Amino acid sequence: MPGTSRDLTRLRTAITAFFALDGFLFAGWVVRIPAIKHQTGASAGDLGLALLGVSAGAVLTMTLTGRLCRRYGSHQVTVACAVLLSLSVALPPLTHSVLALGAVLLIFGAAYGGINVAFNSAAVDLVTALRRPIMPSFHAAFSLGGMVGAGLGGLVAGALSPTLHLAGLAVVGLLVTAAAAPTLLRHEPPSTPTLLHDEPPSTPTLLHDEPPSAPTPTPSAPETSRRPRGRTRGLVIVFGLIAGCTAYGEGAMADWGALHLEQDLDASSGVAALGYTCFALAMTIGRLSGTALLERLGHGRTVVAGGATAAAGMLLGSLAPSLWAALLGFAVTGLGLANLFPVAVERAGTLAGPSGVATASTFGYGGMLLGPPAIGFMADWLSLPVALTSVAVLAAIATLIGVATRRAVPN
User: In the chain, at which end, N or C, are there fewer CB atoms within 10 A of the end residue's CB?
Assistant: First the structure.
């Protein structure tokens, strides 16, 4: 078990590497989807069905991964899922039918969902051991990895076939895993206090209105006992709802932001692409500054301020008559949403260990899946700008949940 500051620093570096790798590999796959569509001869509908394999694999695996983390340890499961993710990212270009593509994407999605639960569980343990709210920094690494993966994919798309490109990503993934895995495998997760009972907490709260102070160490429960029960389960679900509201916005911005700028504000395709870039860059900046923000405001105020900021930003981004005002709104939305998901996952993990992380992640992934089709249906019934205001509505709901739960979780 890591006991020195140097050990904890090494663990932080290794876990950060896996977060960045996850974003890098996923973004690298996403930018090659058009080429894979052409290769398999899939229609838009067929491709959509095949892509459900990623979602189905992730959702089905998340709960199972929580159990595996309790049984074998989050560090071991992180490494195993990283190997599977690295290998599976090379498989889509080897398929030549929609059915085969869906099958390999099911494997890829399972690895993606699994590693998200595992390394978030490992991060939660480290956050508590360090007694600093550093969870946003891990998610910033994921965002940075995604930006690098997407940028690199755009650069090599004209020079490399999808087979060579994704095979190269697999090699990179295996090399990063080989470099970071020994640190995780040498050390058990740090002991963390957990809330296991249904009684109201008698200690100061974690979603509170004061900056977090160092928690009083308590004997850690065996990992196998860290399962949400009763009131704790309800709180985990509440934090899962915050994660879902946040991820809904991320999914909506990724799929509909550029179309709104191009269709409703007459932006060129190049300028329209800036919409998601502004959003993603602002989210990354927000996460990089998230630890300082949490130390200054505390978890409760950060959630409330972030949700309110995102709601205001999305109202501007969706309803503004000016292109540049809309771009500003997208950036403000990214800043607001940046730290809601990391805080929600951290709180759920503090309450219930890997099971809590799995529940919050499943809600979050469900929100990301629900967002794009929900926006599409609402756009058909009403209009795209009005449909995008649903992101603001859910951000406001996350704000209200933050207010209601700011005294619900102990230190």
Answer: N
